[in-house]
Amino acid sequence: MNQMEPGKENLEKKIEIATATPEDERGMAEVFYKTWLDTYPNEEAGITVDDIEDRYKDAFTEESLRKGRERTTNLPEGENLILAKEDVKVIGVCRAIRHSDYNQIQAIYILPEYQGRGVGHMLWEEAQKSFDPDKDTIVQVATYNTKAIGFYEKLGFEDTGKRWKNEKFKMKSGAMIPEMEMVIRMKGGETF
Length: 192
Description:
Layout: H1 8-14, E1 15-19, H2 25-39, H3 49-55, H4 62-73, E2 79-86, E3 89-98, E4 103-110, H5 119-128, E5 137-142, H6 146-155, E6 158-170, E7 176-184
Parallel strand pairs: 4-5
Antiparallel strand pairs: 1-2, 2-3, 3-4, 5-7, 6-7
């Protein structure tokens, strides 16, 4: 049995891991917004706070929240949206996808004030329950997000060496978040 991190016992008594519901949409949007603001502005990559503010300028409109509630209600097969909650407050979000040939962590975002307290590990443990244990698991991370890279390394992920920039993450300024891939390979697993 794994030893718990100091203070994790108390955290597990207060934090609930649950499947997202449409009513959680505003809380999830807040986690994404605050985590992006804390994580992605980067002078070297040319990404500013203004870029992040612009990306989230409509995130809390009734229309955006309605669309988010619809997405949460109609998740594609194999996709799970898992939350960490303290009482009714959403403090962490994990999007886990079981593809036909691999598993994927699309996101683990934790409110900055809750990072380093075991919440991400709790979400990871829950995500694994929906994965095919015989398939590799990948995650894509900003190349300069050293906290996330360190977190995934502790879970057993390794850098595959793949690097790219995705138009999906193009900011108002024109800068794009540089990404990398990490993987946990199953014994005998091949690169996909």
